[in-house]
Amino acid sequence: MRIGITCYPTYGGSGVVATELGIELAAMGHEIHFISYSQPFRLTGRDSGIFYHEVPVANYPLFEFPPYDLALASRMAEVAEFCSLDLLHVHYAIPHSVSALLARQMLAARGRKLPFVTTLHGTDITLVGLDRGYLPITRYAIDESDGVTSISAYLNEKTHANFGVKREIAVIPNFVNCNLYQPIRDAGQRAKARSAFAAEDEFILMHLSNFRAVKRVVDAVQVFAKVAAELPARLVLVGDGPDRSAAEWLAHDLGIHNRIQFLGKQDHVNELLPLADLMLMPSEMESFGLAALEAMACRVPAISTLVGGVPELIEDGVNGLLYNVGDVDAMAAGAIALLRDPARHQAMRDAARRTAQTSFCSTLVVPQYVKFYEKVLASTK
Ligand code: GMT
Hints:
Blueprint: E1 2-6, H1 13-27, E2 31-36, E3 50-54, H2 68-82, E4 87-91, H3 96-108, E5 116-120, H4 123-126, H5 135-144, E6 147-150, H6 153-163, E7 170-171, H7 187-194, E8 203-208, H8 217-230, E9 233-238, H9 244-253, E10 260-264, H10 269-272, E11 278-281, H11 290-297, E12 302-305, E13 320-323, H12 328-339, H13 342-359, H14 362-379
Parallel strand pairs: 1-2, 1-4, 2-3, 4-5, 5-6, 6-7, 8-9, 8-11, 9-10, 11-12, 12-13
Helix pairs in contact: 2-3, 8-9, 8-12, 11-13
Bound molecules: ligand GMT.
Ligand GMT binds at residues 8, 12-15, 17, 121-124, 151, 174, 214, 285-290, 308.
């Protein structure tokens, strides 16, 4: 198949899923065309079967807000025509599904078909999409999509409840490449890599996000402060965003800044995650929690919040630990108890990796997208 993929190309889970999906599909022999305002950040090098089409957004003094969605629709239609795309797959409904709808209409007027699939990721439904300025048009584009998927059963249910959408939405969960994201088996090699962040007897706690308010990075620092008061430990924070400064201030105020490393945005998180003993994901909301899945594939269980679609990934006490949002005392107590019990910690580590392997490996999930595309194509023939 020749598939066009549109996503937010900068740091964020929906862009990661879209990019990894394109890479996996290309490896299966499909031809993938990314269409976005900049190259998706996980798309490095020149992979065979993958093409990137930039969307230039012309500015003009009249435009206080350059109309990206229109430029995107035009580019989608062009790429579809010039590269004979079979379908478009847009990630995050706002505004991508609306642009895809326009592109489909533009091509229909020229006697060509361009079905499109919309994948809902989270705040496009639970937050941004609820704004009255976006809700009616987002609902319309969801209804008009040739196929719709959501990344968790939770998000599926929210879409029906919040948007009054009646149509069928297929749940296709987030996935991880279990060969790329895996534990470092060689103990010597792992110890050497860990020594860049911690002494031999210190635990490494890690947090990975785009540091937006919803991720509650400050809670991660607070949890770590309580853990570090009881155990030798270091915190490694991967990513960057609006709340980084608040987290840095707190680390200084608590006098633990010399135990914390802020790494900023990193391209190869698969090399960092296996070095951790625990992942901290104290988010206000996660429709799935891709960062936790990536850690789990590396045999690192997560201390997370019991929100959204997280329980579809993490079974409390089995492959991770779940707490109420903001309950940093309980999260810290849970982390301390787990790290003090090596047998339980090892069992949880194994269970985390097993969950990733048995339910969320790209080899299991990507074929579900292929089947879905085939179904959409058959129904729009
Ligand atoms: O919805 C968002 O906040 C944006 C999106 C992103 O681009 O970071 O995150 C969502 O999509 C991820 C990938 O499918 C999920 O793993 C995240 O749980 C989800 N975030 C939220 O629901 C807050």
